[in-house]
Fold each of these.
Amino acid sequence: MAIKKLDSIFKPKRIALIGVSNNPDSVGGITLRNLVGGGFNGVVYPVNPKREAVFGIPCYPDVKSLPKTPDLAVIMTAAQWVPNLVRECGEAGIHGLIIMSAGFKESGEEGKKLEAQVKAEKAKFPDMRIIGPNCLGILVPGLNMNVSFAAGMPKKGHVAFISQSGALCTSVLDWAYESNIGFSNFVSIGNSMDVSFGDLIDYFGQDPNTKSIVLYVESIADARTFMSAARAFSREKPIIVYKSGRFPESAAAAASHTGAMASEDSIYDAVFRRAGLARVFDFGNIFDFTDLVGRKRIPKGNRLAIVTNAGGPGVMATDSLIAMGGKLVKLSDETMQRLNDYLPPFWSHGNPVDVLGDATPERFARATEIVLEDGKVDAVLVLLTPQAMTDPTATARAIAEMSVKTTKSIMAGWLGGTAMRDGIQIFNQAGIASYATPEQAIRAFMTLSEYSENQQMLYETPREVPVSFQYDRNELRKKYLSEVFPKAKILNEDDSKMLINDYGIDTTHPTPAATEDEAVQIAEQKGYPVVLKIYSPDITHKSDVGGVALNIKDAEMVRATFRNMVKTATQKRPDARIEGVTVQRMVDSKDGIELILGTKKDPVFGTVMLVGMGGTTAELFKDKRLEFPPLNEHLARLMLRSLKIYPLLKGWRGDSPKNIDKLIEVLIRMSYLAADYPEIEELDINPLIVTPTDVIALDARIVVDEEILKNPVKEYSHLVLRPYPESLICECKLKDETPVLLRPIRPEDEPMWLQLLGSCSKESIYHRFRYDFYFDSHEVASQFCFIDYDREIAIVAEHEKDDGTKEIIGVGRLIADPDVEIMEYAILITDAWQKKELGYTLTKYCLNVAKGRGIKKLVAETTRDNKPMISVFRKLNFKIRFNEDTTVSVSKNLEEEEQNV
């Protein structure tokens, strides 16, 4: 397994240093000194054909001459020698390489060619994994292993740090020594030619010594691997990320509104949010946040209360909180009364809670406790400034003792110098994060609350939104690929709207008119008032050339508008082909909201969806939200709630609320369209009018990816997340002719999944989970129903009862290893449906699913007393092994089976 091969890099017993020299200040000299002098317990082989010894250690001419094959080789030669050295290492059977040498793709075209040669050599050895090139190396404090040219070794800890910048690594290490921060692993990945962020998240996600992962990201190349790994482990281990290059000058704005608004950084923001990661914007705050999130007291929201002994710091914290989008919670009447009864008369009578400068430790702690007991409060920030009557150490001790009574997050700001050190030490021991300034604390809190929201997204159960299509989508796709998309790079408004309308999104249908007379005739057929738009395949933004006219009420206005519009457009764009105008009915939007809805294909992350404030000012206000298809009800609703104009959709100051449910349906339909057409490079609906009753696309534009149209790509390869696998829906019958629907599980299935487990006996639950599994909680259930269909697939057996309601009567689950080569299988059948061959039917179907995914081996485990399932495995020709501890292990080699066929 490729991930396991990383053991040769991070747990080597023998290391070869290729290109090491006698210069103590060289990369090789420092690395050798770090290994030998740092306490590494393994064997180090210096390799240099020009040296008999290095620093008194015998040197070998090449890797073939080594007495034993090393697990890891570190290459630190000039770049031109690296391809040959990679080949020699592969031929010698070395599975792990770190290439510290620079001079590859980061140095220009010649470097890119050289890196391509290294890749070509590496491809000859499938078991080889490479970190680098152009990297600092790695440090594993638990093994006293410093395979880098960074000085010193940080202390052993539980944070895995992964960085694309070697220079930043040295700065972070210096800072870590000073701040006594510890690491489980410290990795500089450089150009990440082979081992990527996704690989390392997979590896450290399974490492018991790693409790959280910190990423310094400049760019991500393998998007699907990253997203799959991050979503798989972010539920169990916090992943904190800092993304540099937020405003790249080289990013070219696309021609459409969607393209211009979907900037590189906003796409990365959507990636981190969808993966459940915590994004930090201030690198100096990253380890403060890592420390905070490691304490496992995650607020459920962004509603903060502040307790302080001075007004100024409370105001500073409030300013920072509001500026960053947090909420200063309004304390409940009950809490206010309790504070009034306890505090002196001159307290602030609001939030922030000023307990006054003469506050005793007991007053501080009791006020904090009262505030924490308020149901509206998600977290409390306690701020203390040194005053004549203040005892910082005793107050810290009182807060720490009180903190054991609550599960809510407490943060402390002990503002001052040496007098605060003992109190801060008490907080550290009590698991309470402390900060030097109010702003620093607020930044950490807001990052924490955003992280909490991202995590909740992974656990939310969306509402069922019935979406049906008027046409067969496969037949529809054939029509557009053969008849419509080949017409032009940019489809005209009519063709663009036709596709959108076919996906169930209402549009106004424009009709082309080449002359004034035609325009009048069409307008009278549609009925006044009408809208005229310039008709040109070369003009993208019609309003920029005076190419849009609204509310035209009679024939005379149609003629005058036609003449003026064609004349103005010709003057402003003499290069454009003007073919007349289009005429469409005027939609009364005075009680509606204008939105923009669109998709754009990013070169790294594939198709991304955007919704935001629409109209001609869309790019100006940039009130937008990006997400990745596929969408469900909850994700679509979150997109809308994040917009600044959402209150207008809800109904603002007496205005009628807009049809948000219909709008959510439109977003979901758009996500289907985006998933079905990798040939669409960009799609704009602007404006999309949302009224109290309707959602209508007034203008639309589609840009075709002509390269993919000529050279079709693998299904869904343009999506960073695998859509719901509709192709796996299958109708079948049991031996008694009972019809059953086999289909992949959905997040919306949570209620039925809970009913399934609730109807199972303790014995059935034990046979499935091998322990007394507690399932009756939303957090647990969502983990089993909300899956990414990439590494994990669950097939449910759905039965329709006599009253028309549906139930899940069984579920088979396949979970792949990170390399997606081996899948573990588990099955649960409700007691009432056992002994009806449902177990056999479901297992056989899951076996075929695994084969279709290219899985090499299927494994499962049960107990000896589970005779029905052992019988099923025997029928399906699994290898069965009875273990000494009463368990039974079964396996099936799918590769061998395919070869036999």
Note: The two ends are 25 Å apart (CA to CA).
Amino acid sequence: MGDRCAGARKAKASRQTPGTAREPPPGPSADPPARGRQAAKAGRGNARPPGEHDRAPRGASPPVAQGAKSASCRKGKESDLREVGSAPGESDAVLREKGAAPTGKDPAPREKGAVCKPKETAEPLPLASYSCLGADSCIGARWLRDVLKTLSLGRADTSEASGLVNQLINTLVPVIKAQESTFSSIESLGTGSYYEHVKISAPNEFDIMLTMPAPRVKLEPCEQGSGAFFYARLKRNPKRYYLNKYLSEDKTLEACKMLSALRKIIKEFVKNTSGKHAGPDSDVTVDKKKVGSPAITLRIGTLQQEISVDIILALEVRSQSWPASTQGGLNIKKWLGAKVKQEYKWKPLYLVPKHAKDGRMLKEDTWRLSFSHIEKDMIKNHGNTKTCCESEGRKCCRKDCLKLLKHLLDQLKTKHGNKRGLDKFCSYHAKTAFFQACVLWPDDKEWLFTDLESCFQKFLDYFLDCLNKVYLPHFFIPTYNLFGLIDKASSEFLSKEIKYEINNRFPIFKLQN
């Protein structure tokens, strides 16, 4: 009888004891979750996640059955506080003050009244955990937008730089035409990130292709070229032909000789004019020749900045179908449409004088396929609905994600220099990954600007997958692996660095400040 009375008294006391007050889990934050008293303060006042019960009236504490888990004990939420069998009257804030820390994993069954112990070390939350699923007020998304603002080009600087480059090229091209009959029909074509409107930080790099119509040529694949490198042999050989002086015995166009002849003319031009044609307050110089590079690099020095201009000779091949190695490439039917693909396939091919690698040896007189003109058009007209990012259309974040990846690679190179092979990775790798990602997610709705954070995470996930496999296929030539000459150690190091940046919310971006 006494036992029964004692049990009744305990039950009555339990009913009269106030329940544990629930607190909503901390919302998205620009920093990793706080601990102790700071965590308790951070959790106050935030809205409940979808699926939880309505908030209790102000001042009221809804009772919680003894031994029940609080709403913050759901699996998969790193910022949740686990409260299994908490003692009556102890709130989430009290538990935090005692040192309870989020674990992100369901704990093993505990005895009644036990409280989770804090981890000795806590991993930073992955970027995906902060995703706001398109909310304009998301702190992380606003932060990424602030980074993008620092990457935008100043209007005054851009106008000045482009003016200097245009003045130089407009003066140089007529000189080249007059000096060498072989180059009498060249025309300039702007390519690269500046003309694609994805240049970041400063307008200090320009790529100019000097295109010249090529005769009917037969493209013979180079064995070490993976479908990207070819020998160009004339189908016909008139006696008085302007390219005769650059033909080998087997009628193959000698890329090395043509590039050297163009370089000689440009150096002579710079020497005679002292660079005055670029502007009254500027000086022009020519960089030393880089082994295997198809570019002749000019540098325009001004009081404010130095501008590099890569001049690339390109043979324009028309009235000829694309090589067999391009079959399966340019997979844009679901992204830009079959009609657009057909239009691109009718555009001319360009061949640039680039040496193919045979182990440690370089093969001279090889030409590499170039699709710079099509790449520029795809980036500028990147939406599958023809109004994407136009005045009457919705803004997407495709180009913004590309800029962020380019900036990430640049900052990592600044931090580590040429250590661990980071110099082997370039902006063209980022651009190719961008095209592949646009094919994987072709719909404009999958790249809404309001979803910038989650889209950038998705894009990085694809790039990390390429690094892990050490395989990034050329967008136009699927048989050509752009990571083919990159060793596994360099790829793993870059992958590790990117993962660290993701898990710590990109501290590398703060270097620019």
Note: The chain has two domains: 23-42+64-107+116-125, 148-512.
Amino acid sequence: MELQLVSALSSLALGGAVLVLFFCKWWQPLADTDRRVKELADAVEALLRQRAEVLGHDPAPSSDPVRAWLRRVQEAQDEMASIKARHDGGQLYVVRLLQYLFLPAGPVAGLAEQQIKAVRALSEQGAAILEALLATPQAPPPLLCEPEELEDLPAEAGPARACLNQALRFLGDCDAALGVWGAGGVGKTTVLRLVRDVCGRVARFDHVLLVAASRDCTVAKLQREVVSVLGLRDAPTEQAQAAGILGFLRDKNFLLLLDGVWERLDLERVGIPQPLGMANGKVRKVIVAARSEALCADMGCRSKIKVECLNQDDAWSLFQAHVGGDTIHSHIQIPALARQVAEECKGLPLALVTVGGAMSNKRTPEEWSDALDNLKASQPSGTPGLDKSTQALVKFCFDNLESAMVRECFLTCALWPEDHNISKDELVQSWIGLGLLPDLGDIDEAHRFGHSVIAMLLASRLLMPGDNHRYNMFPSDTHVRLHDVVRDAAIRFAPGKWLVRAGAGLREPPREEALWRGSQRVSLMHNCIEDVPGKVDGALADAQPTSLMLQCNRALPKRMLQVIQHFTKLTYLDLEDTGIQDAFPVEICCLISLEYLNLSKNRILSLPMELGYLSQLKYFYLRDNYYIQITIPPGLISRLGKLQVLEVFTASIVSVADDYVAPVIDDLESSGVRVASLGIWLDSTRDVERLARLAPGVRARALHLRKLGGARALPLLSAEHKQELGGVQESLQELVVYSSDIEELVADADVPKLEVVKFGFLTKLRVMAWSHAAASNLREVAMGACHSLTHLTWVQHLPCLETLNLSGCNGLTNLLGGTEDGGSAAEEVVVFPRLRLLALLGLPKLEAVRVEGECVFPVLRRLQTRGCPRLKKIAMRPASGQQGTVRIECDKHWWNALQWAGEDVKACFVPVV
């Protein structure tokens, strides 16, 4: 038995060995075939990458060898696909074995081997073509015109014209980066702004990005600047943000203007596509403004422009321009004194501008003599650096401001980050909250007075016009900024002690006790504070600031709020956009001296009754709250007896809590609390009537109305309802109406302060008519999902209109109707004197901006047109000097199909496709 078992096992072993030998013999060729086919696929993939590189350097090949090579590459790709399909057709081993037995030549393996040799030969030819392309300099982007031919340049271009021309010629050469360097205040920023403003008339770029690097610049901070200019979404991490920027700019022609660079920046980490220069058929250029020539070189700038102080003649011309001819010639002795004052400015443009502004109202020789003596006395002795001399000149201008109040208002501008564009409304709101403006007894008067102070500071040239930074809008009258030299000086002039680390990329508060001890105003806004280590606790223990600005720290830790509750002297606290979620931070309720509290753009579910402990609270802002529901307990508002401003809005148009509106109005009615500025959601006309009865003690400056109980009309803007709604009509500045059944909107009431109107999801609205009294001050109009509207002819009669945003209005056929709709005759030109932004989005039936005739948009800077397939022509008459000043964001095929009335109209636009 055992012998039989051994015999059987031996037979099985022998049979297995025979099978293994048989299958090994026949399997090896099959494995070789698999290997060759994969090798072919890899070789063709590498060849296709090589083809992409060739096309990147030569997008439209004109030479026969290159075109022939590209054709053979395509043939190789097709042949590889055929071989692979034949190979993959028989994946079963038996089928492949039979093929091998009956086709001993092994056609798939043989064909793959032959094709691999052909692909390798093509790859060698491609390498030679690439080498030739790299050896041949690529043609630079052509200039549309020579820089010297530009006319109608801004006034500040005079002294900077030579540098501007050099920078513009750089746009048409082969260099990738240009350095603009010089001391602080010589005009580097001016050169960059001029390049941005006029480059559309010289060269075509998809995007021109002017971003401020500033001191302490981090990758994340520069990414935020770029994202803001491009209008992209924020990403949670630096890597994700870099990927988003890279994906957006990879196939675009762009010019990046980096202002205020203090140290080398890794643009690749930011997400800026590399390499710069001419790459893959795209133009990628960078202009760097820095104080050091070496830093420009470190940023890869082979070409550099040194911006120097002005010569005597140019300095005198710039000084005269900012003083004003009437002032200089108001007395026979002043011109000679003025020349001496100008000489004290050492040819520095910043000093000439600011000192000139300070002297613009000095009309007696005595005033000029005193100014000259003060300037000479303020200059540092010895051989000071240019920055010290500049600060002395800034101090002279600062001392010449009208009053101590204006001087303190100016100093607070330094609490914002370096090179930050500060909203005028935000600035005035902070001045009011800090108690810097006189108590005029009326919040509207206080706002007007605050804007007059801004006008004084702009006239003195200590403040400069800013930008609407998002989408890189051109300068407007809504933002201001401080030159970094002026900001540095302002922080030194501050009364008492200030701790300012705004926009410095901090991830935790400063640890040094000396910085906190005795600091009255603390600004840590626009950072990334996310931790409060134990070492910081000691530094904060004895701190007792009176104002604390923490806005735009989007992940502010709970521990920071626990520390803040011990700042019992705090009167001003800004926590806007600090990532507060769900529960209201009750630690704030310990700050019994608090007068100003801003919690906007957070995620707060309800207000606690403990908020009533803040008996000194005057200004409370909770705008754009994330949650669609927010609960305000009954009796809370009545406990805040000193409240002057209350603005509580959700960021949603869908719903608010049922117990939100009623307690607010009930408290206002029962307590007699006077609120100078009220902003809330309302659900019915009855709520509006209740508010109107509370006027003038309660003034509704901003109302968001939704649903309105099925109302077919909007009584709020009607003169017919003045008796019951006049109290609201007189004070209303912002009106938002959503999700209502309104069919007709006739605005004929006198609404003198109304500036902003927004209407959304009014799907039954067919008729809109506005009288001059209701529309004379409108600055912003937005219409969304109002499907029954066919035109908006009334907007042409808005003299102050700056922004018009239309989206998702499916029935809109013409923006401005014909004469039967009350429009102008065809031969008349319709002028929009102040319109800067026109957005036409998702308007499938829109055929024309105007049925007949032309429109003039003299200050238009941005036009959005997407989802408007029937809009084939822009009926626009160019304004003087408008060439290349309008950024139009649109689809590429739509832009290419546009019908132009003339090349002069097309030349106004810089397409972003």
Note: The chain has six domains: 24-135, 150-306, 311-400, 403-495, 683-778, 783-913.
Amino acid sequence: MNRSGLIITLIMGCLAVLLWKVVNAPDMEPPWPTKIQGFSFSPFQAGESPSKKIYPSVEQIDRDLSILAGDVHAVRSYTVEDNLAEIPRLAAAHGLNVVLGAWITPDKEGNEKEITKMIKVYHENHRNIVRVLVGNEVLLRTDQPLEQMLRYLDRVKKSVRAPVSTAEPWHIWLQYPQLVEHVDFIAVHLLPYWESIPVDQAVDYCVMRYNELKQAYPNKEIVISEVGWPSGGRIRKGAVASPANQAKFLRRFLDVAEKNKYTYYIMEAFDQIWKKELEGEAGSLWGVYNDARQPKFEFVEPVIRIPHWRELAAISIALAVIILSLLFRDSKGLLDRGRGFLALIAYTITTFAVWMVYEFQRQYMTISSLLVGFVLLIAATGAILVILAEAHEWAESLWIRKWRRLPQHSPPEAVPDADLPMVSIHVPAYNEPPDMMIETLNALAALDYPRFEVLVIDNNTKDPAVWQPVQEHCKALGERFRFFHVDPLAGFKAGALNYTLRETAPEAEVIAVIDSDYMVEPNWLRALVPQFADENMAIVQAPQDYRDGNESMFKAMCLAEYRGFFQIGMVTRNERNAIIQHGTMTMVRRKVLDEVGGWAEWCITEDAELGLRIFQKGYAASYTPYSFGKGLMPDTFLDYKKQRFRWAYGSVLILRHHMMAMFGLERTKLTRGQRYHFLAGWLPWFADGINMLFNMLALVWSWGMIVFPEHLSPPHIVFALLPVTLFFFKSLKMFFLYRSRVTATRRQSLAAGLAGLALSHTIARAMLTGFLTRRIGFFRTPKNAQANAFIKALGDAREELLFVIALVLAIIGIMLRDDSDMLDVRIWVTVLTIQSLPYFASVVVSLISGLPKLPAKLVGVMAPLKGLGKN
């Protein structure tokens, strides 16, 4: 890292610390009273649950009460089941009063046993039992009708001397005035979080509801039997659950309660993990003390959103410095703006990652949450790596002083004919239209180069009417042109190229390859072959370019999409001698081609695989971003997909075959920069594969939310942030780089983005298939094919259409949930909407390809491909 990079890193680090500090500025809140009136008390610990009939031991209950002793006047119990019946006796030993509760359910027989036992417990411990509650939110849950509850209340009132009531939310008391007539006091629950009240309004809201009850029933004592705020859980509109908000609410409420002389019971003393099954994450996090019986916030000191923010800030800064030390390793030509951009991205990512881990670890871990956490970690790591790779390319494309290895846009120095090596041009073909191939051969015949030959290899074409006209035309063009028809010939395109390599003239020093549809410029060889004067130069590559972009809107879109790779990706890769060799407009030193064993017949992307093997030997490659030949694009979206499937599938096979070398575990001459660019270049495609798995899981989860709304809520918001962030970052990068480096118009940039997005599902299938199989037949990209009809175009995108339908139905179903207005539900709907866009793009692009009469001017044909010029 040079001095400029170090200064930028330090400045960004200081800004990051400042951000952490501002976000975590202390809030002065009223102090916790020396002794509060009451706690809701459930002594269950990890692994214990009333629903599973696993109850705490007497010793555990006693330890919990000893923690509260001296800090509270009374505790409220909820049931007398099992050892919980011992609470009054144990509380008395610690000087604590008790509000004794009986749990009422739809089971009348069970209720009779519970009430009978409660009365017995009361009589055995009446000295410290100050109130009795028959049931908790029974009417709210509709577990029993009002008439039955009145009978229970009347029965208990006759059996005990303490005041008797039942506990319900405020609106139930207002809804049932007759219930008030049968109780000695109103036991009301005031839980503003469940009512989606923001924390800053929550205490006033509780006071308002308390006064509303007081006005409605002026002659009844009101006891706030539950009041609290969870330290975690779903965001309910403006109600955010967090430790800081829990501290704010409770400390503010207690201050008001002491001043107004309320009788209250804080909900609750200890976190109850078992409630997560019933009420979600928030249900387990209402305790003032966590499951380890440690306080969750400060009782007197100022409230800080993240108390340990200094440690977290230090971790995020350390991670950012490590990332930047890697990003700045080879960045001498990068302008300070580029370094600043990378520093901003690195600090943003590490801050987010640290916050994400912090948020996630605040949950109580179960096997399912640990599994979710592991998946989240893998997804987050992948997303972060993709964003860093994309950001690095973004910075190097926009903010570099000078391209070190890029030939400038000026005529090359003339080289005497006698000093130019002989070139053997190989043209593989399979079942290609003869008229198209004749045009290709005529262009080759017009080359301005002294010594070359052209070898045409037609492999496995069955119909003589297809290959014989080409054979005859080669004869007519003279002895420089030789034609071979071989059937059968194994090895696909690589097999054909290896065949022609064996037939190549012995004096040929350079092998050039073009596809059968390419019409080359006369100066192609004369302009590029002189680069082989460097003995270490093994590959000289010119970009693929196309001449039929004006035929239709579909082809104009494809042309715009192709340009990004050749004017952005290949240029930045060339700076580190790490270009992707592609099988047309490429030249290879013959000696090197023989040294590495020719073309790999096991690989359907034999061109890229050959380039990697050549780099492993330590040879150099050069990329010239000027057009020296133009071919034809796929005519239909289906063919467009087949082509991209082949490229993506082949990349997985290459990675699998060369994995040890790619990760530096095998001794080769690959540089760090070359390994980085090959891996980073494939990362977005791997991300597409992972994204498809994410979409499948998202659909399963979403349909679970629809079918089981009471038990399944949206995934954690962090899950939503990852795909949304990645989508928008990649989209912004594409748009800005197209506008600046590809010199595309807004329409062309958007069209390129749409076309690229439409291939996401195809790439995802290819990547996943590549990990499961080792060989799929070579997909030839047809040229001059009959354009698809409109209906067939829909069929060509049938998988993507099914995904669109499934995602749209999931969105509609989720929006029909009762909690559809909650933030996490809306965010999840946003995620599903964004995830549907690539599939929707596929359907749209396929339909456009099925309407070949849509004119190219709707997009605008890209200007002729030129170099980037002088920087």
Note: The two ends are 23 Å apart (CA to CA).
